[in-house]
Specification:
binds zinc ion; HIT family, subunit A; alpha+beta; 3 helices
Length: about 140
């Protein structure tokens, strides 16, 4: 869809951790925690409620894979996996995506999206490289 950041982001190879026909994975630019990533639908659906079930199912499998990788490489002690539907729920970009948010013992459990420190381009690349490398080793 023209003007949609998640439709155009998938064409910029840079920080893409994983991509297939249904979804792609990138670091969140405003991470709530170390290793916060997004699993984003390749096709434009405004939110989970308008996304076909087979696409949702596939994307949650990918979310699980990268949650496990995050626990392994970033030593997270827990993970939140979820999606926001609608502005009132905190959805900032109206293109279906799943948040994978690693959690760490002793850290505050923030759920406020888009208000966190923006990652520097090199920090984005670094996290993409770490998770990509760990995914390659785990297969
Ligand atoms: Zn889109």
């Amino acid at each position: 869809m023209a003007g949609c950041i998640f439709c155009s982001l998938q064409k910029s190879e840079g920080d893409i951790i994983y991509k297939d026909d249904w979804c792609y994975v990138v670091p969140d630019r405003y991470p709530i925690s170390r290793g916060h990533i997004l699993v984003i639908a390749v096709d434009h659906y405004s939110d989970m409620l308008s996304t076909p079930e087979d696409v949702i199912g596939h994307m949650f499998i990918i979310a699980k894979r990268y949650a496990k990788i995050n626990v392994a490489v970033n030593e997270a002690t827990g993970v939140n996996i979820g999606t926001n539907v609608g502005k009132s729920a905190g959805q900032a970009i109206m293109h279906f995506h799943i948040h994978v948010i690693p959690r760490y013992d002793g850290q505050e459990r923030i759920f406020d999206f888009g208000k966190n420190k923006e990652l520097l381009p090199e920090e984005m690349k670094d996290m993409a490289r770490i998770l990509k490398g760990a995914a390659a080793k785990s297969q």
